[in-house]
Amino acid sequence: MTKKTTDLKKRMRDALMGGGQVAIDKQKATGKMTARERIIALVDPKSFHEYDLFVEHAGKDFNMGDKYLPGDGVITGTGTINGYPVCIYAQDFTVAGGSLGWMHAKKITKIMDHAMKLKVPIIGINDSGGARIQEGVNSLAGYGEIFYRNTQASGVIPQISVILGPCAGGAVYSPALTDYVFVVDKISKMFITGPEVIKTVLGEEISMEELGGARVQSEITGNAHFFAESEQECFEQIKTLCSFIPWNNMKKAEPFPKKPPRTRSYNIDSIFPTNPRQPYDVKDVIKAFVDDSEFFEVQSMFAANIVIGFARLNGNTVGFVANQPLVLAGVLDVDSSTKAARFIRYCDSFNVPLVTLVDLPGYLPGVDQEHAGVIRHGAKMLYAYSEATVPKMTVILRKAYGGGYIAMCSSHLRADFVFAWPTAEIAVMGPEGAANIIFRNEIKNAENPEEMRKLKIKEYKEKFANPYVAAAYGYVDAVIEPAETRNMLIHALEISAEKAEVRPNKKHGIPPF
Amino acid sequence: MEENNEAPALKSIIIDNVKYKTRLTKKFMARKVYEPIDLKKVYSFIPGTILKVHIKEGAKVKQGTKLLELEAMKMANNIVAPIDGVVAKINVKSGDLVPKNFLLVEME
């Protein structure tokens, strides 16, 4: 037995060395952790259990048969995060550049299948040069098998992608199909065609960082949801996210101990200007009434004119969607609609109640927006809200004009509760625009048109720029003082606990993708 | 998560005749100003290499006449005249590498 055990230990030692000391040193020299170190840093101490350590690659052509690739360049296993089970894999760049061959893909799909059966999240750490060219069409098959599983698992178990190295070509589409993509500055690089190809084909020179670095993916493309300065910070972000989300689509997020907001730091009266033209940071408003004033923002750098993220009310996770008057006056546009719509669908899939905060002047005007398809992208929000059956609470803080009012989870899209602050202005458009149209003739024919315009704007404002017209039709359920917001939302959540809404039976709808 | 970049200055944006004080995003600042489509100008619809130039400056061409052959993504694409007219200027020669939206031919 001892002989056998010694043999096992030797085999394990060899396999655990991955690509060998030289390759490991090279990986570390670039500021990166090794694949196994990353897993250990992410999961709870001593919780990681590895499988398929002795898997061998399946390459036969181009003299690959003689090569030993420990674990075929990917580490798979199970562990726990915050005490709850997860399935995890990490590509090992020290082994053949983390390239994806058939057995490498098989290990990944096997652990994905486990995650689906066990109904636990799957976390994938990507660090790979791409397809293993020597294995030809089998490496393509491998990617395809992963994409198919990503799609099947979508909305059933949480899928988290962590990009800690290159993730290029076909490899990018697995992260793109998952719920959340984490990137780290100067380490993550994602693109379909790399700088080399772009240079040969187009003569355009661009660095990997400028083409598809962490900042670009977080700020410009919206492919990434969380940006970190270091791998360690990235792992902390993942743990925080895991504390907010439910473990699968049949569960609710684990409740936390209730905590009041820190109202001394976040005081509505000092945060919130009543003049609708003045900006403020809507995140401070959220913090003013959620537990411990803790708001965990998603995609903070992309389309910052809308804010999405998680917080807790009386210990229970809620998802927030809020216009951000601080950026682009909080307008809806192509990017912000896409960002919000996807988050709404996430929350709906995973039983996270939605709170929507409304303060927007409307849609962003411009040829670029129209030609970029603001019609179909804007429609995504209408679709996502109308489709969602989780409890939906809306608070109208100030402006709710025109199409923006409808899109921001109005009662017409079946918000369960719509509250409005006394500062709310629910109207077909802003007073200035409306008065110019309605009183066009009076203004034109007046002795002093400018005076008349001002007078008519004032008249319109007094009559329509308030929450009471909408309240009179019952489109607003209650006009509340800002200080009551937390209590109203908590009550609404409590009584919506058993909410069940039936939708027409269908295979799936046709959202404006 | 704290944002590490310093607060950018407030600018303004006008929506429905109302001026709002707010920050602007990089993307918003970098948006392209619209230019109307000019059928007399022939642009590359894809980046690639010019394989052949079929016409000379001054040539009279009919709509659909082959002007150039542009190889891109392993395909040879025919670039044809969008309208009847005279080729005023050819900005490429055989073997040139062109990016997307490069002005290839100007017509009159």
Descriptive account of the structure:
- The complex is a heterodimer of chains A (513) and B (108).
- Chain A has helices at 2-16, 21-29, 35-42, 102-118, 137-153, 173-177, 195-202, 208-212, 214-221, 231-244, 268-271, 282-289, 334-349, 367-371, 374-387, 402-407, 431-438, 440-445, 449-464, 468-472, 485-495, and strands spanning 49-51, 74-81, 84-91, 122-128, 159-168, 180-184, 189-191, 226-228, 296-298, 306-313, 316-323, 354-360, 392-401, 417-420, 425-427, 478-479.
- Helices cover 40% and strands 18% of the residues of chain A.
- Chain A is of the alpha/beta class.
- In chain A, the strands form two sheets. In chain A, strands 1, 2, 3, 4, 5, 6, 7 and 8 form an eight-stranded mixed β-sheet that branches. In chain A, strands 9, 10, 11, 12, 13, 14, 15 and 16 form an eight-stranded mixed β-sheet that branches.
- In chain B, strands 3-10-8-5 form a four-stranded antiparallel β-sheet, with no helix packed on it. Chain B has a four-stranded antiparallel β-sheet with strand order 7-6-4-9, with no helix packed on it. A two-stranded antiparallel sheet of chain B has the order 1-2.
- The mean pLDDT of chain B is 89.
- Chain B is mainly β.
- Chain B contains one helix and ten strands.
- Chains A and B meet through helix 14 and helix 17 of A and strand 2 and helix 1 of B.
